[in-house]
Amino acid sequence: MTTALATTLPGTYGSCPFDPPPAYERAAEAGSITRAVLPDGSPCWLVTGYHEVRTVLADQRFSADARTPGFPFLSPTQRKLATAKPSFIRMDDPEHARLRRMVSRDFLVKRVEAMRPDIQRIVDDAVDGMIDRGAPADLVGDFAQPIPSLVICLMLGVPFADHGYFQGLSATLLDNTISDEQATATHVELMTYLAGLAERKRAEPGDDILSRLVERDDLSPAEVASMGFMLLVTGHETTANQTAMAVRALLANPEQLTRFQAGPEAAVEELLRYLTLVHTGLGRAATEDVEIGGVLVRAGEGLICMISTANRDEEQFGTDACELDVTRDAKRHMAFGHGTHLCLGQALARVELRIALETLFRRMPGLRLAVAEEDLVYTADKIVYGLRSLPVTW
């Protein structure tokens, strides 16, 4: 593979805070699968088209295992964390399926729906707190972050008092700019915490995921901690950022906010599509020669599937795909990925987002930015894109 006319990764963000980096959009215009260059100078494929991304993510010949030769990384730290002690999201079947089944029942739609009263209480408490403290408030720190943190604490059996602690550690691990030393130290600290909590669950089990995992005789204490780690880190960061960015987008589009208030459940799918926040893409590595989108990808070559551009594909979502339209039929979006690695927590994320947004705008109909739009700062240096803070008043 040559690197002529290749896209240099990662891309730099443009002027619109809701769009993927322009370089990825230009790559999508050039073709559904094009050449790209990783930060270490090695080549890979950039998959930007909706159908091509969907095909790659569903094809078992493209490995999700970070240890597979050719697997693409955007930083040495990412490589080290992903390959040292991989979680099941970085594994292929059958091992991926075996471990995923151990926790999948806790994320089934029926069980998530049963949690609605608990989620509603957590959301109401967050709104109450903002009202009691008075305007202005930081919608990120006071609302968007605590809600998914407290929900995943409830599911895992983590003491509520500790949610701020692990929230800070997971945010550090998702920062693309941290050093290997910082990443290793943070990873060890969080794993040590979870291993200790798992041991306490062994002595005093409860009705939670960690308690059920420690009761199994086919998981080591280290594997229990690793699964808890993955669920904690992935269980709140994306939902927190999605919530804050959804509020930002609706405030920036008042007519869409009015339509959202008329039917929030369907509108959430469009917000997920429009604000796909994993702009760094999903990595895969070919284990044999495969033709995708008219291009031959050879065994040992890496691919990065850009779900953000796939969700803006005009052939799939219409010529206005780069605009927010909460009346759009967006249910086939890939904000949660696709295939066997489809996000385990998608049902939970949907319910959290729906309850959070509906409750916020119902109870605070006068919600608006407390600063100028140009003063907002975005987390362009993190794996999950979002806002550092969102000052609001009402």
Q: Name the helicity range.
A: 40-55%
Q: Give me the CATH superfamily.
A: Cytochrome P450
Q: In terms of per-residue confidence, which ranges show pLDDT below 50 for 5 or more consecutive residues?
A: none
Mean pLDDT: 92
- Total number of helices: 17
The count of β-strands is: 11
Instruction: Report the CATH topology name.
Output: Cytochrome p450
Distance between the amino and carboxyl termini? 55 Å
What is the quaternary state of this protein? single chain
Task: Based on Cα principal axes, name the global outline.
Answer: globular
Radius of gyration: 21 Å
Strand content: 5-15%
* CATH architectural category: Orthogonal Bundle
Largest sheet: 6 strands, mixed
Helix/strand/pairing category: alpha+beta
- Name of the top-level CATH class: Mainly Alpha
Our count of domains comes out at 1
Main-sheet strand order equals 1-2-3-9-6-4
The H-and-E topology, N to C, reads as EHEEHEHHHHEHHHHHHHHEEEEHHHEE
Describe the structure.
The protein has 394 residues and is of the alpha+beta class. The protein has a single domain (7-393), classed as Orthogonal Bundle (Cytochrome p450). It is 50% helix and 9% strand. It is built from 17 helices and eleven strands. Strands 1-2-3-9-6-4 form a six-stranded mixed β-sheet. A three-stranded antiparallel β-sheet has the order 5-11-10. A hairpin with a 2-residue loop joins strand 7 and strand 8 (295-297). Helix 9 (163-173) packs antiparallel against helix 10 (180-203) and helix 10 (180-203) crosses helix 12. The chain is globular, with a radius of gyration of 21 Å. The N and C termini lie far apart (55 Å). 43% of the residues are buried. The model has no long low-confidence stretch (mean pLDDT 92).
